[in-house]
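go over this:
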Amino acid sequence: MNNDPYYHPYPSRRPTVYAKNGMVATSQPLAAQAGMEILKKGGNAIDAAIATAACLTVVEPTSNGIGGDAFALVWSEANSRLYGLNASGPAPKKLSGEDLLQKGYKEVPLQGWEAVTVPGAPAAWAALSERFGRLPLTTVLRPAITYAEQGFPVSPVVSLAWQKAYEHYSQTLKGEQYKHWFDTFAPGGRAPLSGEIWSSPAMANTLQEIAESKASSFYRGNLAEKIDSFSRQFNGYLRKEDLEQYKPEWVQPISINYRGYDVWEIPPNGHGLVALLALNILKGFDFPAKDSLDTYHKQIESMKLAFADGLHYIAEPSAMRVEVKDLLSDAYAEERRRLIIDRALEPLPGTPPKGGTVYLATADSDGNMVSMIQSNYTGFGSGLVVADTGISLHNRGNNFSLDPAHPNFLLPGKRPYHTIIPGFLTKDNQAVGPFGVMGAFMQPQGHVQVIMNTIDFGLNPQAALDAPRWMWVKGKNIKIEQNFPAHLAHGLAAKGHEIKVSLDTSLFGRGQIIWRSPDGVLMGGSEPRADGTVAAW
């Protein structure tokens, strides 16, 4: 790992940021500053993460919301231990794959009640605060409440995503049940422009209620009643009973050792396993140069094999037909590694031996660090907004399978395959720091590229994020950014990869990194493809 701030082979809009007392990195400057405000008030990295996450539901509603899910990895310096929180929600008890198949669905739709699972984000904030926080939730959520109540100027990348969503929803969201989305997010009959003030007093009231009740209102009180009533009004599946029975789950993170560093992810139902599968294959190769044809070819082929396994096996843990430890065994990695040849192949799952999202990273002066991600899944989610609350319900249920033979088949009370994954890096049982790359199925691909940029090629945090990215889509189809080296793109095409240049930088994920040096200095990078920043103290 190279911490040289001047070692930066790619054009950048910003340098790596260094600080000692605290750091918050995320995709929207106001949210990052909200987290920093909480740190300066005496909060720790966990308080800062909650403040940032809540603020992001207001200032970046195009990617996440109060009605979404969340995952977190928390490094507790006092315990020298990493904790995992899975705050993804299950399908309502009234929703089943069999029912949707009988209604003629071939897959779970992106919009409407069929895609809505129990939201976990408010429960995540409360659980993190209760276990690790220093400040009251009413203090921690105050910046988000203020921005929702008084308004804020919309940032450029968020504005562009908002406009795209409005144009899409204007064509696709038909019916009275979607009226509240337009009332909330396009009250003037359009999306807000960059720099234009947008506010939501209803969202402010909801956040205040969540803060005062420690999220109890959302699952057992007034807000739960409103969600239930809205669902019943439009023949939805979600009920107060589903909300009452929900609790986020503290989980043991999973990891592999990659060249002396331990790379950590949340276990299934999340697909952080895919990133670990790919890295486990890649660690058996030597990569003397980053920008070489051999490097990119092997990265892509390893990622394809990892996704083939992930999409075939990952589901709610109780439904999985293989053990995670077997998928991550060195013997299985070697078996998959032997499949990689000099030509692009169609990826197929193996048989192991038996045995639209926001991301944020925070760190404080005591050594605590948080890697956290929350999401609506695509854009604003299901298109359903609970009246007079600002709660945009996510569409995570779209990730369920409607194949009865698949372990990820939609069943009542079951959590779906989940794409949001926070990452964390340690070395010799000490924290190096949080990292993440948001963006649905780009996320594990972004994790692999960022980790290799850092460990194999010595790039500092900002350079690791700035580097041109590739994305496997399906089969041999690969998308690359427009600044991807042309000679390497031609070389990959000659190996059988179907290369397509994409001008849409949002496809390639948006990441944040905070690393901590052995002497306690924090160094952070923020995604150039977003409005983000690193707030430092």
